[in-house]
Amino acid sequence: MPLAAKIPEPEAGASESQRCDLIVHNAMIITVDANERVVGGGALAIQYGRIVALDRQEKVFANYTSDLLFDAQEGAVHPGFIDAHVHVSQYTARSVLPLMEGTSVTMGHWKGELRPEDEHASALLAALDYLQCGYTGFVDPGTVFAPDAVATVADEAGIRIWLTDPYVADGAEALAADLPELVSQSFLARWPRNTDDALERLGAQLYRNRNPDSLVKAYIGLYGEGTDSPELYQAALNLARAEGVRLQEHLGYLPAFQLKRERALGQPLLRWFEERGFLESHVSFVHMNLLREDEIPLLAEYGIRTVWCPWGQLQMLGKEGAQPRMVDLHRSGVAVGIASDIPRIADFDALGSLAASAAAASKRPATPREILRMRTLGAAATVGADGELGSLEVGKRADFVVRSPSASVNFGFDPGLELAVIGGRQTVKAVFVAGRQIVDRGKVLTLDEDAVVASAHRSARGLASRIGLRA
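The structure assignment produced for this chain is given below.
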């Protein structure tokens, strides 16, 4: 780690310094907390993986000392990004869709053929790319068949992962009817057969929360989009409430499908949810590409949190019923987290640009500072981690990114724009997770990049061969 050329002298009359594990100094710290401070010439003191001091570096050095120093060289330091929703076991399938055109092969066949070693290889490749792009965690929405295979990636790579039970649903036929390009018989055969089968899966991953310092955490997840019965949703909500975790599900990805459900119900879907007591502060919905203006205060009232997938929103613009309002939700006080979903057309570091584009296309432009907040604190909030992560504050876990001050986009005029929208992986100088440096000038210190990429390529070619695809 770079050492400071000169450590500030303690202030006159300062008390004896406390020892800590690490001090990051000479930094422009963007806190993304409630006050949204920018601390120039700032420093962070870290002990046991948490921030114990954040202030002007003179004050930090007056109270803390450490054998381990990191000189940010006047670069920006900000909370690590969190991908609020990614189908991580499909990451190695980023470029297979064109091969399926004109064939009977669907993404369902790819997913139906996934083995634990494929899911591990896909998640490890994603972790490599995430870390290089300034991410410190990601959330899979229950689309991993072998959670243990993905969970091991957290310690291997040094990245946080949120998992839930695989494909909890008791009405998969809804997905097959409305999104046939996502399914196959081999895929659906791995789903729960009925409500009892789904209930047996529910909550099986929650044991991961017993260790407060684990990089892997669990929540309650339903696949959603009409694939869960009211009985299953109620059971999931009860369990989330009892365990103090969030319940997440897809809702409103395809606006036409939501309209179809509403016609069958005879009322707007969110009002139906409200009547049954299904709207609660423990709930996060993903997508919501159809949201009426009068439903914004409803979500705010119940403390619902939402996940915004900008590419998915762009795909839906112009389709029947599309009414995206994620920026309006954010401004109403609803926590919104930005997510890649399945990053088929852009790398992780382009997600901020996609969000800015999607917001502008929906005629509700987002400011760069809003996008920064949604990629950090907002994303943490959607999985119930905002008390621990997403901002740089004393007491919170020390997950942060140090940006190179010499990168071409870093002028310091608009940190939100420079860090969260146009700043790519080439600007990332270092990434820390729980106070441990994981990335140094583009190199992930925990992984053998060549081996990770080679393993992912072998897995993808093997999968493609098994389902009859040829490049």
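Interim note for the steering committee: The chain is about 35% helix and 20% strand. The chain has a mean pLDDT of 95.
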